[in-house]
Amino acid sequence: MIGTMSKLELKGRFDAYQAQGTKIWLKDEIEKMSGQGVKANILVDMTDVTFIDSAGLSALVVGIKKAREHGGTMHLFGLQQAVQIIFELSWLDKAFPIFITEEEATQAFNA
Amino acid sequence: MSINQAWVLNRKTKGYLESLGDTWLNCGAESFGFRINDRTVYCIKSEHHRPGLNMNPQPNGGTSIPVGHFIKNERQAVQSVSISSRVRLGDSQTGALFVDGLDGPFYQKRLDLDASFFGETNQLQKDVDTISSELVEKQDQLVTLYQLSQTMRRHLEIQPLFSSLIVTLQSLFHSEGLFTLVSSGGLSPIVSAYPDNTLLDGNIIRELQAMHLDKESAIFNETNFEKIQNLLFLPLDVKDPFQASFVFVNKLDGRFVTQDLKLAQLIGEQISAQFEYVQLHQELLTKAKLQAEADMAKNVQMQLLPTTPPNIPGLDLFAQSKPASQVGGDFYVFIPDATIPLFVLGDVSGKGMPAALLMTMLRSSFQSAARVSKLQENITTEVLNDANRSMYGDFTSVEMFATAIVAAFDLETRELSYSNAGHSPVIYCPAGGKPEILPANGPAMGVVDMDVAGQDSIILNPDDIFVICTDGFVEVWNEAGEMYGYDRLLDLVSSIRHFSAMEIAIEMYMAIEEFAGPREQDDDQTLIVTKGVDHGS
Between B399, B444, B483, which is nearest A92 by CB? Predict the structure, then answer.
């Protein structure tokens, strides 16, 4: 059921410059979905993200916490190796559901 | 001056007429006088003509004139006139000198000359008087302007500056009242009236607010307002977001003229400049205050992060923190008096004051958790879980999180156990081996509201190195846009492993500074270097 899901596509360096806008987008989107009475499921396309720093991670952490508060969750897919390493080193690969492909990530919302 | 208005005989003119009259009387004239529009304004008679000094009744009902006296408005005073001559007075007035008792062309010609001379003298006198009064007025204005500039210089706040200007300006422009309009950031202007509100009403305020927006100086000598006959509107050219205007109302001595407007504009420029200066002064003052507060905050944070760590037997320790701005979110803390010596390093997400505030709270949470723990074996897990529980709510409400590592060193077994909440990089470099990154064994703090901290351990023998630093040592970019990264960092640690803890730290700071080149440090840089040493060495 793709209808109850919003998709976020991130690109390039996901650092402090992008993080602030993303944080606001996530909050608005989650509140909007919640207002419509649907689960706040967020799909994040990381395919084109080449680098992520603590500000970027912070935006995603805030996003997944908010999504969970509203009965949903956040799925990431397509992490490049450099980004995957940062997730692993900071143990965030255990905190976020991470998938290889978009299809897997989407289907997992229905599992 | 209208034709009916009385001609005023001033002291100088009277003196001149007296001397002229004396000359004529000496020549034999019985009387000499000056009249305007058939009204005698000066008359002097000879002693021969009127014996005695008493005011005796005349046969024709007239009044006798004492010798040497002049009279006004007494046509009857002159019974007869032998000769007279017109005097040009200007101002549409006709005057004449007259003489009685002497006649003939010679005297007529002489009287004509006197009349002509008197007219010219009178006109010159008038011109001199006008110029003098203009000079006096200009001088008064200059003095007032000087006082105005002195007054302005004494005030470095906007409100007192305004108040001091009002009294001086009102007297300078001879106005019954003065209004001020002050607005900020496009909001409706606030209208104040001096000396009181009696001239104000809703219609006037609306009209003035519209003029305030137009910012055009102008004079209105006719208005539709009941209490206001005329006004002079003067907008000031002050710096955004402020806007200010002065309105002079009801000129006490007539109407506002172009000269008033010119003077007002000149003064307006001076006031605007001073207003701007005051604004600038206030801004600098605010900045200085903020800077002083930031400096104090920095000092407090530096006090919280001592570069001399406590002595923990078996370890050579060194710690340091360099925030990117005045204060930052990185911290470390040593707790040697826990059941087993502990040290903690953390990195609150974000930078500056918000991160610094949360950092001090988190640091305290770790200290409290470490001091109440009775455990020895799993103390790092318990301390991390405790601190996460107490801070989770705060992290969530301010939308931040922190990475942190808690480490404990057991001298007997030389085991260094650690619980790492998402922190990186943590580098372990055994004396004979290659340096490696130790991954986290739990999520960052503020991410999960559960006790999920893990624990791992290494053996730290003498010359083994355990370095915890913040991502400010990895995410450093050079001018070519390359990141320093983990590989360079591991190579660096390997190459300086033989140094002491302090030397290793200094080398690490120098290496990333050199790599960054002229680029400014944009992340906090904090580290704890731990090197195993023989106990007692």
Answer: B444
Q: Region B413-420: what's the mean pLDDT?
A: 96
Are B347 and A88 within 8 A, CB to CB?
no
Cα end-to-end span (Å), chain A: 11
**A-chain residues near B448 (CB < 8 A):** 95
Angle at B489 between CA B486 and CA B493, to 5 degrees: 140
User: How many domains are contained in chain A?
Assistant: 1
The pLDDT value recorded for residue A96 is 92
Query: What sign for the dihedral angle of Cα B114, B115, B119, B120?
Result: negative
Task: Give the Cα separation of B122 and B120 in Å (integer).
Answer: 5
CATH number for the domain harbouring residue A27 = 3.30.750.24
Complete domains list, chain B, with CATH: 11-130 (no CATH), 154-282 (3.30.450.40), 305-532 (3.60.40.10)
List for chain B the helix, strand, coil content (%; round to 5): 40, 25, 35
Query: Could you read off the pLDDT of B373-389 as tens digits, one per residue?
Result: 888 889 999 999 999 99
Q: Would you call A8 an interface residue with chain B, using a CB distance cutoff of 8 Å?
A: no
User: A95 vs B350: CB contact, 8 Å cut-off?
Assistant: no
Token digits for B132? 């003098």
Q: What is the pLDDT of residues B497-526, one digit of tens each?
A: 999 999 999 999 999 999 999 988 888 899
> DSSP character for B97?
E
The answer to whether B328 faces chain A, any CB pair under 8 Å, is no
Residue A11's domain spans which residues?
A: 2-108
Residue B439 near chain A (CB below 8 Å): yes
What tokens were used for B522?
């944009």
> What pLDDT sits at residue B51?
41
Please give, rounded to a whole number of angstroms, the shortest distance from the CA of A92 to a CA of chain B.
6
A68–chain B Cβ distance below 8 A for any pair: no
- Helix axis angle, A54-69 relative to A16-35, nearest 10°? 10
